C-alpha cells in the first residue's frame, strides 16, 4: 500500500518536472524572439570563436580565414537587426511650427570657413534655417584659422536663429607638426600637382583635413555640446526636417550619420589602411565585436575598399571623437604623417573610425533630409516623403542607388530594407 502510494508520488513528481521543463524551453524560445537585436547579436557572437579585430586575426596562423569567418559572423549578426528601414526609427514630429520653443539637446551646428566663404556659406545657412533650425534654434559655431571679419559675423548672426559663436583655431593645430619633414611634403605636393590630383598641391587643404579629423571637436567653443551638425558652404538641404535630428540621434542611440557615401580616390591615401591595420594590431580592444568592418573592407580587413561617408554632411555625437579609441587613432595617424606626405581626407579617416570603433547599429543613413554638395545629390526616391517634406529635388538625381555609391552596400550588410523601386534609380 505504502509502496504503491510512493510510486504514485514519484510518477507525479516526474510528470511535474517534465511540465516545468517544457515551460522553461517554451519561455526561452519566445524570449529570444523579443530580445533587442544588439543583445541577440552580442550573445550569439560571444559564443563564436572570435570577433572581427585584425589583431585577433594576427594572433592566428590562418589570418585570412579567421577574418572571413568573423565577417560571416558579423553578417549573420546584422541580419538580426531591426528596424527594416532607416525611416522606421522613432521621430517626434513638431510640424512646421516656428513658434515651437526650440530644441533641448546639447547640440550645435559647426562650420569651418574662411572669410571669403561667407556668401557661399550664407546660402547653406539660409536653407538649414528655413528647413530645420528656425523651429529648433540651435547654436552655430564658426571656426577659422584667421579672425572672422565683422561682415562675416554680422551677416551670419542675422541669419542664425540660435546663438552664434566665432572661434579662432590655435596656430599649432593649423601648421606642420615638428615631426613632419616639410621638404618631403613639398615633393609630394609637386608630384600630386603633376598627376593632377584634386587639391594634391594644396597646403591649406591638408591643414583643413587634419583639423576636421583631429581638432574641431577639441575647440573650446565645442566643449559644452554633445552633438553637432557640420555644414559647408554651397550645400543644399532639399526637404523640410520637422523633427529634432539631434534628439533623434540620442533617442535612437545613434552616434554617426550620413547622407552620401562613395569610394575614396585611392591616390590620396596609399598608406592609410596599412597604418590603420597597424593601429588595430596594437589596440584590438577598441574594436567592438559588432563593428562595421564589412562596409570598409570586402576581404575581412586585408584591404580597404575606399567606401567612406561624405563628411561635408555629418550629424554626429562628439563623444565618438572624444573617445579614447579615436583620440589614440588620430594621434597614430598624425604621427605617421599621411595628412602631409599623402593627402588623407577627414572623410575616410572619420568613416574608418566610425566603422571600426562603433557597433554597427550606431550609424544612421538619413533617407529623408535631401542634401547636395557638388557634384552629388541625396534626394528621397519615395514620392510620399518628397511631397510630405516639400522636397525641391528630382528623384532621378539621387545618388544613393547609383553604381558608384556605397550606400547600397550599407543596406545589404545591415540587412536594411531598400525603398521600393530603388532599381529604377540605379543608373
Ligand atoms: N578657415 C578655413 N576654412 C577652410 C579652408 N579650406 C577649406 N575650409 C573649409 O573647410 C571645409 C571644406 O573645404 P572645401 O573647400 O569645401 O573642401 P571640399 O568639400 O573637399 O571641396 P569642394 O568640392 O571644393 O567643396 C569648408 O567648410 C571650407 O569652408 C581654409 O584654408 N581655412
Ligand atoms: Mg566642400
TrEMBL record:
InterPro entries: Glyco_trans_15 (IPR002685), Nucleotide-diphossugar_trans (IPR029044). Residues 36-89 are annotated as: Disordered. GO terms for cellular component: Golgi apparatus; membrane. One of its GO terms (molecular function) is alpha-1,2-mannosyltransferase activity. Its main location: membrane. Residues 52-69 have a biased composition (Basic and acidic residues). Belongs to the glycosyltransferase 15 family. This is Glycosyltransferase family 15 protein. It comes from Pachysolen tannophilus NRRL Y-2460.
Amino acid at each position: 500500500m505504502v509502496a504503491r502510494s510512493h510510486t504514485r508520488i514519484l510518477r507525479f513528481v516526474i510528470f511535474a518536472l517534465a511540465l516545468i521543463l517544457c515551460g522553461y524551453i517554451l519561455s526561452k524560445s519566445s524570449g529570444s524572439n523579443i530580445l533587442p537585436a544588439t543583445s541577440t547579436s552580442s550573445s550569439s557572437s560571444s559564443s563564436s570563436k572570435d570577433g572581427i579585430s585584425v589583431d585577433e586575426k594576427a594572433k592566428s596562423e590562418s589570418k585570412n580565414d579567421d577574418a572571413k569567418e568573423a565577417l560571416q559572423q558579423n553578417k549573420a549578426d546584422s541580419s538580426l537587426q531591426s528596424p527594416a528601414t532607416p525611416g522606421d526609427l522613432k521621430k517626434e514630429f513638431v510640424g512646421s511650427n516656428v513658434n515651437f520653443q526650440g530644441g533641448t539637446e546639447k547640440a550645435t551646428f559647426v562650420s569651418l570657413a574662411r572669410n571669403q566663404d561667407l556668401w557661399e556659406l550664407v546660402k547653406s545657412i539660409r536653407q538649414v534655417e528655413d528647413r530645420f533650425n528656425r523651429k529648433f534654434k540651435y547654436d552655430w559655431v564658426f571656426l577659422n584659422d584667421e579672425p572672422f571679419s565683422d561682415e562675416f559675423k554680422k551677416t551670419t548672426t542675422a541669419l542664425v536663429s540660435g546663438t552664434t559663436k566665432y572661434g579662432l583655431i590655435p596656430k599649432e593645430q593649423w601648421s606642420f607638426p615638428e615631426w613632419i619633414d616639410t621638404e618631403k611634403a613639398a615633393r609630394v605636393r609637386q608630384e600630386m600637382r603633376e598627376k593632377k590630383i584634386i587639391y594634391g598641391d594644396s597646403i591649406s587643404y591638408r591643414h583643413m583635413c587634419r583639423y576636421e579629423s583631429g581638432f574641431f571637436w577639441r575647440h573650446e567653443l565645442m566643449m559644452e555640446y554633445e552633438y553637432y551638425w557640420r555644414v559647408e558652404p554651397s550645400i543644399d538641404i532639399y526637404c523640410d526636417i520637422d523633427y529634432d535630428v539631434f534628439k533623434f540621434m540620442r533617442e535612437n542611440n545613434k552616434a554617426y550619420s550620413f547622407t552620401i557615401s562613395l569610394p575614396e580616390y585611392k591616390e590620396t591615401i596609399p598608406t592609410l589602411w596599412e597604418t590603420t591595420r597597424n593601429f588595430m594590431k596594437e589596440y584590438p580592444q577598441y574594436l567592438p565585436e559588432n563593428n562595421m568592418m564589412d562596409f570598409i573592407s570586402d576581404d575581412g580587413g586585408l584591404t580597404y575598399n575606399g567606401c567612406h561617408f561624405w563628411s561635408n554632411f555629418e550629424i554626429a555625437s562628439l563623444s565618438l571623437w572624444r573617445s579614447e579609441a579615436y583620440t589614440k587613432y588620430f594621434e597614430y595617424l598624425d604621427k605617421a604623417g599621411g595628412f602631409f606626405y599623402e593627402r588623407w581626407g577627414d572623410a575616410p579617416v572619420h568613416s574608418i573610425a566610425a566603422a571600426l570603433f562603433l557597433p554597427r547599429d550606431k550609424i544612421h543613413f538619413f533617407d529623408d533630409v535631401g542634401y547636395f554638395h557638388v557634384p552629388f545629390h541625396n534626394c528621397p526616391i519615395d514620392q510620399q516623403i518628397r511631397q510630405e517634406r516639400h522636397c525641391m529635388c528630382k528623384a532621378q538625381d539621387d545618388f544613393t542607388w547609383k553604381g558608384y555609391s556605397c550606400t547600397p552596400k550599407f543596406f545589404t550588410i545591415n540587412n536594411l530594407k531598400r525603398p521600393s523601386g530603388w532599381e529604377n534609380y540605379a543608373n
